[in-house]
Amino acid sequence: MVQEWKNPTASLQGQLLIASPHMEDPRFKEAVIMICQHDSNSAMGVIINQQSDKINLSQLCETLDIGTPAFCGDQPIHIGGPVNSSRGFVLHSKDHMRPESVTLTNEIGLTSSIKILREISDGIGPKKAIISLGCAGWSAGQLDSEITQNAWLCLPSSSEIVFYKDIKQIWRKTYEILGVEPGYYVYQPGNA
């Protein structure tokens, strides 16, 4: 069932933001975003279903002068969004939290420290991780307005969806969970 957005003052941190089938911005077409921060001043999230075909963990570690990864070197790097595209964000399972990590849900944390990249590449990091460059950001009230205009749907996040192996299917899978067929989704801004 679609979660209706009734309270623009409620935080969406830990929720998934799912692009409407009618999303016009090509950067967010069929995007699923983990909301990492949301308050009255701004919102920030990381796209979980867009990977770069230009860089993997080995190449990123080389660029950052971390050294060659002993583990996970071929792990793709995600495109977290169009904002701060040179800044890294790691969504990860909470089995490995650093002191600077932020808890997003009972299962998922966020870390932006380069130390977690070293730990992942050494095989001592979290069991599940999405390494992203960039994020999505909204100014005060902007995300709330976009939700009210039906540009986005919301869904409580789960480790199963966030770390789903076939990222090309995540958007469709979220619609299945919501019980909505994207082809029948009616885009009509406003409230009843």
Describe the protein in words.
The protein is of the alpha+beta class. The protein has a single domain (15-182), classed as VC0467-like (3-Layer(aba) Sandwich), CATH 3.40.1740. The chain is 18% helix and 32% strand. The protein is built from 5 helices and 10 strands, in the order E-E-E-E-H-E-E-E-E-H-E-H-E-H-H. Strands 1, 2, 3, 4, 5, 6, 7, 8, 9 and 10 form a 10-stranded mixed beta sheet that branches. A hairpin with a 4-residue loop joins strand 7 (102-103) and strand 8. The longest helix is centred in the C-terminal third of the chain and has 9 residues, at 170-178. The protein is globular, with a radius of gyration of 17 Å.
Briefly say what this structure is.
With 192 residues, the protein is α+β, with helices and mostly antiparallel strands. The protein is 18% helix and 32% strand. It starts with 14 loop residues before the first strand and ends in a 14-residue tail after the last helix.
What keywords describe this structure?
VC0467-like; alpha+beta; single chain; 5 helices; globular; ten-stranded mixed β-sheet; 32% strand; 192 residues
What's the topology here?
Layout: E1 15-19, E2 32-38, E3 42-47, E4 51-56, H1 57-63, E5 76-79, E6 83-93, E7 102-103, E8 108-111, H2 114-121, E9 129-139, H3 142-148, E10 152-156, H4 159-162, H5 170-178
Parallel strand pairs: 5-9
Antiparallel strand pairs: 1-2, 1-10, 2-3, 3-9, 4-5, 6-8, 6-9, 7-8
Strand residues, percent:
25-35%
**Would you identify the CATH H-level superfamily?**
VC0467-like
Count the beta strands. 10
Name the helix and strand elements from N-terminus to C-terminus, one letter apiece.
EEEEHEEEEHEHEHH
- The tally of helices reads 5
Category from helices, strands and their pairing: alpha+beta
Whole-number tally of structural domains: 1
